[in-house]
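Ops channel
N.P.: pipeline sanity check, posting one input/output pair.
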């Protein structure tokens, strides 16, 4: 650990020069695949020291310690929620650039990106919830995927390596909660320097056929599963507002019921701000993971979130 401490600045500099190209990890995995199964994580790394030298060990240790950030960009930012299937192309482009720039400067951080469905999901899901017709569920899914394609194309254009993950193909609702079968895809993406991009979607439900899974639920899942060190939720408002319209700077989980929260001004089948804040409060109380709600419609806020800028204005939950 002392060696690691000494080498960290040097290695970090090297990684910054080659952002998100974890060549060393891939090489090690290809050469010694069996060892990682035979030994605990620590001992397999000690073996790597012997077989590949101290430098590899130091890089492995550094990557093991990398921080996972979970960021959701709300449908209220990416789309016009008052309309149907209307994307805000300029906001999507700007946010893609901010993400690309931030990742180029923070190669030691891993990002799981989630986006909401906005006008590509809520109005369509409302139709499904009224009809309970499988055809309407699939229309909702196709529409949410269409927004995902717009977002991922923009991210790629900005130079971000991404992999879309569609919840319908990897999450199923059984018993009382969603069962997530997407851990390994996300894991491999993070290991190989790729940003997994998840989105609000319909999922299969053993009782009802289909149900809606919100981007906010995916944020909580990803934050818990990958022990996120930073969780951010961007919407079209500056944070959680009180009755006077002022931003509440901090909400303690135990006090969440005292905050007067409404859903959304637009069609939002997943509970809008109220459900969002309750989910995040639960994440904080049960897993000690706090989060920040900020305005992603405002320029540079996404960049500020990803680069830990103290200047980021919003509501901290937890
Ligand atoms: N107390 C509150 N403070 C702030 N916003 C609130 C409050 N109560 C309700 N809202 C509404 O919540 C909205 C944001 O939540 P909403 O679910 O609509 O957006 P989103 O999560 O970005 O969209 P999506 O669900 O498509 O991802 C705001 O636009 C605002 O109208
Ligand atoms: Mg919402």
């Amino acid at each position: 650990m002392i060696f690691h401490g000494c080498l960290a600045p040097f290695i970090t500099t090297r990684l910054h020069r080659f952002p998100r190209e974890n060549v060393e990890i891939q090489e090690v995995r290809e050469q010694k695949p069996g060892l990682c199964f035979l030994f605990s994580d620590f001992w397999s790394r000690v073996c790597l020291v012997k077989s590949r030298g101290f430098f590899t060990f130091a890089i492995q240790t550094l990557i093991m310690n990398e921080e996972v950030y979970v960021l959701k960009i709300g449908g209220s930012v990416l789309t016009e929620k008052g309309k149907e299937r209307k994307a805000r192309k300029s906001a999507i482009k700007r946010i893609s650039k901010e993400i690309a720039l931030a990742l180029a400067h923070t190669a030691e951080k891993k990002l799981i990106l989630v986006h909401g469905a906005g006008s590509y999901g809520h109005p369509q899901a409302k139709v499904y919830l009224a009809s309970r017709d499988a055809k309407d569920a699939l229309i909702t899914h196709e529409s949410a995927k269409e927004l995902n394609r717009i977002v991922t194309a923009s991210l790629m254009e900005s130079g971000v390596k991404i992999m879309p993950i569609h919840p319908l193909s990897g999450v199923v609702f059984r018993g009382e909660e969603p069962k997530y079968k997407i851990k390994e895809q996300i894991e491999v993406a993070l290991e190989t320097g790729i940003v997994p991009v998840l989105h609000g979607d319909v999922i299969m439900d053993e009782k009802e056929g289909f149900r809606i899974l919100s981007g906010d639920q995916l944020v909580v899942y990803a934050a818990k599963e990958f022990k996120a060190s930073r969780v951010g939720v961007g919407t079209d408002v500056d944070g959680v507002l009180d009755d006077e319209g002022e931003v509440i700077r901090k909400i303690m989980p135990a006090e969440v019921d005292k905050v007067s929260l409404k859903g959304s001004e637009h069609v939002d089948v997943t509970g809008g701000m109220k459900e969002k804040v309750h989910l995040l409060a639960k994440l904080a109380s049960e897993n000690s993971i706090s989060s920040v709600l900020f305005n992603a419609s405002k320029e540079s806020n996404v960049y500020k979130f990803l680069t830990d800028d103290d200047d980021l204005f919003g509501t901290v939950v937890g």
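N.P.: looks fine end to end. Residues 116, 264, 268, 270, 272 surround magnesium ion (ligand 2) (CB under 6 Å).
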